[in-house]
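Instructor's aside before we start: the two examples that follow are unrelated to each other. I chose them only because their records fit on one page, so don't look for a connection. First example below.
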Amino acid sequence: MLVLSRKTNESIIIGENIEILIVEIKGDQVKLGINAPKDVTLYRGEIYDAIQKENKEAANSMLTDDIQSLLRKKKK
């Protein structure tokens, strides 16, 4: 992990087309501005984690449904 110190109005460039700008620092909160192409998906970490959890639960549910369906067919 790369750790950098930045001040307000300083930025970090990722690749050639993503810029992270420090907009404001107030107490223990940092406001970031992110400039990225529209095809780059951005999520807050906790939202991304929730999406991943829901996707795993949905996949497990579908797998369980498929297994139950196969077992029902086998009993017939």
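Example two begins here.
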Amino acid sequence: MMKTSKGIFLLILLMISNTLFAQDAAMADGMRSEGKIYVVVGIILIILLGLFFYLTMLDRKVKKLENLLNEKQVKTKS
């Protein structure tokens, strides 16, 4: 879980730093004036939240499988 958290944090930092260096704002100004920028931001947030939810669910499933595997190994040793 710790590696996943560090990876997510690194990804967020990379995305933030990438947007800070963006120089071409003409397209963003046009979308903002038409109100479309909020739709784009909303869709991006929905996609990111879905990915984070999927990763946490996948991590839980992997933990369950690891615990089952460890339990089976302990039973076979004793």
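The first helix runs from residue 2 to 20.
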